Amino acid sequence: KHYIMKRIIAAIMLLLPIGVSASIPEFTELAAKYDSNEQVTTIVIDKNLLAIAGGAESNAYIDKIDEVEMIMCDNGSLFEEIRKECDAIIKRYNAETMISVTEEEEQINVYAIKNGEKISNIILIINGSSSLAAVISGDIASNEIGNIIQVVGA
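Above: the chain's sequence. Below: its structure in token form.
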């Protein structure tokens, strides 16, 4: 059931080491807004933790990461509020859809914010029984994404 979702999350996790430099301020504010809500979990993974968690195949990229921000929620109606605010961020930054997958009751969307020829931010939204919104920021060359996804076998 969750096979496709796991592969996409694995692909996104491999995309993390491509070079993160700055987060989206509005997403940081959104995470702070819901941080005290017991139904929401917010996570910020910094450079040091990513270096510890990174495997041998991703070590070449780990030093380029500053942080990854995530908002997780199991309450569907509450996540809809979070999703609406994420949609406003996506619209404000003119993010392009990289992939959109719907499987049974789960929907996965990955958006890219470009800065010239490179991708400056990736926004991941997973909406289902357990929902997640995440921002991966950096300076990602478009030609690197295909190679990373090939490593996963997606």
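The chain has a mean pLDDT of 75.
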